[in-house]
Amino acid sequence: MALSCVLEPALSGFNFENSTRNNVLENGSEEGKIKAPKPMKTGTTIAGVVYKDGVVLGADTRATSDEVVADKMCAKIHYIAPNIYCCGAGTAADTEKTTDMLSSNLTIFSLNSGRNPRVVMAVNILQDMLFRYRGMIGANLILGGVDCTGSHLYTVGPYGSMDKVPYLAMGSGNLAAMGILEDRFKVNMDLEEAKALVSDAIHAGIMSDLGSGNNIDLCVITKEGVDYIRPHRESPYNYKRQAKYKYKPGTTPVLSKTVTQLELELVHETVQKMETGSS
Amino acid sequence: MSEESFTDPGWLSEEVKTGTTIIAVTFDGGVVLGSDSRVSAGESVVNRVMNKLSPLHDKIYCALSGSAADAQTIAEIVNYQLDVHSIEVEDDPLVCSAATLVKNISYKYKEELSAHLIVAGWDRKKGGQVYATLNGLLSRQPFAIGGSGSFYIHGFVDAEYRKNMTKRECQEFVVNALTLAMGRDGSSGGVAYVVTIDQDGAEEKCVLGNELPKFFDQ
Predict the structure, then answer these.
(1) What's the rounded Cα separation, in Å, for the pair A101 and A113?
(2) DSSP secondary structure string, B157-195?
(3) Would you give per-residue pLDDT tens digits along chain A (279 residues)?
(4) How far apart are CA A46 and CA A87, in angstroms?
(5) CB neighbours of A23 closer than 8 A, spacing ≥ 6?
(6) Who has the most CB within 10 Å: A118, A124, A219, B8?
(7) pTM of this prediction?
(8) Which SS3 state, helix, strand or coil, does residue A232 take?
(9) Coil, helix or strand for A165?
(10) Interface contact B138, partner A, CB < 8 A
(11) What is the CA radius of gyration of chain B?
(12) What is the least distance, in Å, from the CA of A141 to any CA of chain B?
């Protein structure tokens, strides 16, 4: 009987050997205080809601690096399994990699066992990994999905804490989004109501938080399938370039021109026919 | 222009704590465990309906406090270890076995973990028992309180606890203690979860905020 193997991340994963050196560099000598480069955070608003037939997840699309918008159309709703999607807030690299690894693990599991993965399995794997790294992975994740036991919505924090709730908001804009959700959430809403609620919650986050903005993505997961609406609502501010930035030929004066022919010797020539099927 | 970039609010990066009130009390024939439901990260409430009473076995529960991640993980590990143990001995585990397993983890990883669990349950040998496992100590007590809100009710529980209460009196005692603590501690609040364990099994109940008893309040 084959073991239902789960792909183990490489042992050389996180290496904390440089942390003492970084500490010395940052705090050591008085004259040369060197600041570590800041990782790109997604400074986000993400939200999720369980409704009558499944789960609706929503996210904004702005990725910031300090005060500059690094990506205006970044995708924060990640694919985990055909029936499970995950919104990520926190450090962009961490959420991307973590969800990638989780997705690979679950694919291997479903190939080995022939079953669709359950949401609680994804949560357990995530919680295990994040706890092991003691908060060093800056990933705040909202997992939503529909499996044979029903529709579920979970959140996992960077230190490995887990919560199961019917509606949720995370990220820097979560306070504003939570206000909308607390006000209008009802059990067993229908699809249009749920989509409007999540969309308005993200919109509130975008309006009240500098780190969130641009468009709103929605992802609706039901027993029948997934509807990934990207974008659901576009921001009314469309930044169109005012002029072309290409230089006209002749802008840089050419002083001289030399052409060197490369001597190429034809050594060997083979022709391989491709099977085109019908003939 | 200052060198510092805009600092993130505390609740974005701070660890999620359960800053809590938990209590476990023995009565004649079993135990009653109670907890509030607030989980905070800095000044923000992350989850206002978390059940901090976690089952370790059919008739053994533990109450979580301290860092949410650490406490949840300890409870999961001990749940697994107890399952294996009860299969090996082919019988229901004793409450003191569960408490010892929790104590072992708390003591061994004392420096790295910051969670305090109260273990309580019923077994055939000694009936209802409550064990406190703060920082790796193991102490059997008639009742135990823990969490940030417990400081406000030490006097109350010391004065009001009586030996051999009935089940009803014990449940009321627990709910009263929780209400008083939630009223004074900023990190405790929400609803009250109460679990009663006796020889017939465990019974979970949730007392909503507006159903809690009212004490002197201007």
Answers:
(1) 18
(2) HHHH--TT--HHHHHHHHHHHHHHHHHH-TT--S-EEEE
(3) 444 455 554 455 556 667 777 777 777 655 566 666 666 665 789 999 999 999 999 999 988 877 788 888 888 999 999 999 999 988 888 889 999 999 999 999 999 999 889 999 999 999 999 998 888 888 889 999 999 999 999 999 888 989 999 999 988 888 899 999 999 999 999 999 999 999 999 999 998 888 887 789 999 999 999 999 888 887 777 677 777 788 888 888 889 999 999 988 889 989 988 887 655
(4) 7
(5) none
(6) A219
(7) 0.77
(8) strand
(9) coil
(10) no
(11) 18
(12) 13
Residue B117 and residue B133: Cα distance in Å, rounded? 6
* B67 vs A contacts (CB less than 8 Å): 159, 161
Q: What residues 43-82 of chain B have any CB closer than 8 A to a CB of chain A?
A: 44, 46-47, 49-50, 67-70, 72-73
Q: Is the ipTM of this complex over 0.90?
A: no
Which residue is it, tokens 């309006």? A207
- Asked if A165 and B49 come within 8 Å (Cβ–Cβ), the reply is yes
Best CA proximity match to A170, nearest among A182, A159, A156, A151 = A156
The first and second tokens of residue A274, run together, are 């491709």
Interface check for B104 against chain A (CB to CB < 8 A): the answer is no
- The DSSP string of chain B is --SPPPPPPHHHHSPPB----EEEEEETTEEEEEE---EEETTEEEESS---EEEEETTEEEEEEEBHHHHHHHHHHHHHHHHHHHHHHTSPPPHHHHHHHHHHHHHHTTTT--EEEEEEEEETTTEEEEEE-GGG--EEESEEEESGGGGGGHHHHHHH--TT--HHHHHHHHHHHHHHHHHH-TT--S-EEEEEEETTEEEEEEE-GGGSPP-S--
Residue among B105, B17, B91, B21 nearest B58 (CA): B91
Helix (H, G, I), strand (E, B) or coil at A267: coil
Whole-number Å distance between alpha carbons of A44 and A211? 6
> Half-sphere exposure of A65 toward its Cβ, with a 13 Å CA cutoff?
10
User: Which of these is catalytic: B18, B20, B26, B179?
Assistant: B20
